[in-house]
Amino acid sequence: MNLEHYLTTHHQGTPRQIFRLLRQGRVTVNDTVADSGRQSVTADDEVAVDGLAVTGRQPQYLMLNKPVGVVNDLRATVAHSVGSLLNVLDQERSLQVLADLPKEVAGLVLLSDDAHFLADVQAAHWPSTLEVRVTGTALQDTDLKTLAACQQAQLVTHDLQRYQVVTVQTHQVAVAATALLGLANVSGAVVRTAIGPLQLPVDLSTGTYRGLFEPEIDAVMVPTGDTVL
């Protein structure tokens, strides 16, 4: 079979990820960097990604709904850490965390044992979507224009429940979160609900996590050499 099909059947990523692996020179066949996904491979060939045999490499891509107050530490022994929220199996994996979410902010966090994937997501410079609830006040759209590091601010008023939801996009999560928490009558935590096109599922409870689906992985993968403006 050809190399691209071989990598797909051995669960090395989505077709888009495999194309990226090959473009980045991270795939070798018999210790030689593969230059095409069309080259033929057999069961006798030694195929590796990032120096690890394909048969022993099963990359993990996870999303976590981080509670407020939890730090981006993957050691299970550290209280109130991301590591303490993982199950025993995942605690044993060589996971890394996209450590861009302060402990004061809840919501979407990405984890993976594929460091290149996390680096690619970070290099894409996706904006984060943050939201916070405000009660007992009557904010106007003009009140949001002065929020530091916030773009595309939106205000939704729920008259019946008597609260408002402020949603912003930002490339500076910590600065924007501080600005949002400075609003009068904030109720609850600032929550990151999205990283670029990747949305925090409404059914993913706080403190829990799941694997990313293939379309979700592809959504945050920018073509090699491109960045998000």
TrEMBL record:
Any one of the GO BP annotations: RNA processing
Gene3D superfamilies membership: Pseudouridine synthase I, catalytic domain, N-terminal subdomain, RNA-binding S4 domain
InterPro entries per UniProt: PsdUridine_synth_cat_dom_sf, RsuA_PseudoU_synthase, S4_RNA-bd_sf, TruA/RsuA/RluB/E/F_N
UniProt xrefs under SUPFAM superfamilies: Alpha-L RNA-binding motif (SSF55174), Pseudouridine synthase (SSF55120)
Keyword match Isomerase: yes
Record key words, sorted: Isomerase, RNA-binding
Entry keyword RNA-binding: yes
CDD domains documented for this protein: S4
Top-level taxon: Bacteria
Molecular function GO terms recorded: catalytic activity, acting on RNA; pseudouridine synthase activity; RNA binding
UniProt-recorded name of the protein: 16S rRNA pseudouridylate synthase
Species assigned in the record: Levilactobacillus namurensis
